[in-house]
Amino acid sequence: METYANLVAGVWRSDADARPDTSPSDTSDTIGLFAAADADLVAEALAAAHAAQHGWARTTAAFRAAILSQASAELFRRAPELGELLAREEGKTRLDATGEVTRAAQVLQYFAGEAVRAIGEKYPQVRPDVDVDVTREPVGVVGIITPWNFPIAIPAWKIAAALAYGNTVVFKPADLTPASAWALVDILHRAGLPAGVLNLVMGRGSVVGDPLVDGVDAISFTGSVPTGRRIAARAIGRMTRLQLEMGGKNPFVVLDDADLDVAVACALNGAFFQTGQRCTASSRLIVTEGIHDAFVERLTAEMGKLRIGHALDAETQIGPVVDARQMATDLDYIRIARDEGCEVVGGEQLERATTGHFLSPALLVGATNAMRSSREEIFGPVASLIRVANYDEALAVANDTEFGLSSGICTTSLSRTRDFQRNSAAGLVMVNVPTAGLDYHVPFGGRKGSSYGPREQGSYAREFYTTVKTSYISG
Fold this sequence. Notes:
There is one protein chain. This protein is an alpha/beta fold and 475 residues long. The protein has two domains: 3-246 and 450-474, Aldehyde Dehydrogenase, Chain A, domain 1 (3-Layer(aba) Sandwich), CATH 3.40.605.10; 250-431, Aldehyde Dehydrogenase, Chain A, domain 2. The protein is 40% helix and 23% strand. The chain has helices at 39-57, 61-77, 79-90, 94-115, 153-164, 178-190, 205-214, 225-236, 260-272, 289-305, 324-340, 372-375, 391-399, 414-423, 462-465; strands at residues 3-4, 6-8, 11-13, 18-22, 30-35, 121-123, 130-138, 141-145, 168-172, 198-200, 218-222, 241-245, 250-254, 282-288, 343-346, 349-350, 358-359, 362-367, 382-388, 403-404, 406-410, 428-431, 447-448, 451-452, 466-474. The strands form seven sheets. The chain has a seven-stranded mixed β-sheet with strand order 15-18-19-14-13-21-22, with helices on both faces. A six-stranded mixed β-sheet has the order 10-9-8-11-12-24, sandwiched between helices. Strands 1-5-4 form a three-stranded mixed β-sheet, covered by helices on one side. Helix 1 crosses helix 7 (205-214), helix 2 (61-77) packs across helix 6 (178-190) and helix 9 crosses helix 10.
């Protein structure tokens, strides 16, 4: 079985223990063995990134753009192949996985353009013969830590932005899904990145995380709230720049005047597709009284039609839960919801032709917003269904959460649409579309416990990956 190495200072290093990467669709399917870095290798990667940063920052924008463009072209070309790899190791359907690889290619293509786009300013003189220039420069060495649920798209939008603006990178992917991340790094490396500009250190966060956070100028993390808070506490002592994207408990409001077909389609997609393993998933369905019963009837009927199975099966609509630990978490929350008084529709562990982590989507009917299952992020195909009297109560319930990433509403009322857009306490607001799903050129991020620091993606990425310099020039 092939062993995949870490990349440090432009050299593939396999001098470390290797861990198997196993498919959640078929636990007998091992994708490969992936080297697990230790603290010493992280130190070497950090040293390489610091040594390379000065030279990389002084390359031309056109040179950086060309590398990103070449890597983007390879991702586009290999999307079916890499989509199959991603589906095998993470469990999302082949269609979704191929779409994610395409999204990564689009992100690299976008930041190739950003690399050459003007981002400075020239201010009017207020003193004779004194010019004022405002320029942006790279932050330095950026540590990037990414989650398992989007194992190529999220690394792409962090790494591409960092490189486009002249930073060097030490990248730690999720331990559960190293293969897709390895493929992305390999493509960028072969596209012509100088040694040390991009370094890959795979392995456990408990081993790799602390030395990585301690050795960088900025850290961009996407993952769980507890881990994000630990990173923040450690980084703040060194005044390290922080960008944290963490959890969500996203509301999707359905009003009496909603188009029922649209409402059910949005809820089904937002809550359950990609196995609900999206930080923007609709985990709280908040439905007003007049449409509640019809909505529940239609939604449960559509849930019963969903095809759950192996990620590579062309008929599959929802793949497996990512691993046994996440399956246990999902089942535990379903039990908690039942004990709290919910009627649970679905939520059953399933057997298929292969041994995998298959779970039917669960709808928690009769939930209240005070229940644990309605307040804590589950990160699976589990959604609370909360009945409310009217729009005002729906908005209040939607905002009554420690999170604030994504929110949605289904209505045909323009006035309710505008009011929800203004008053929803979330970074993303969706109207008559699912709460999950964002284009590559727009800012991504939330409020409250969901996010900390500047937004990701699009032109807003420069706020994190660059620092502003104001210069006065006379003569």
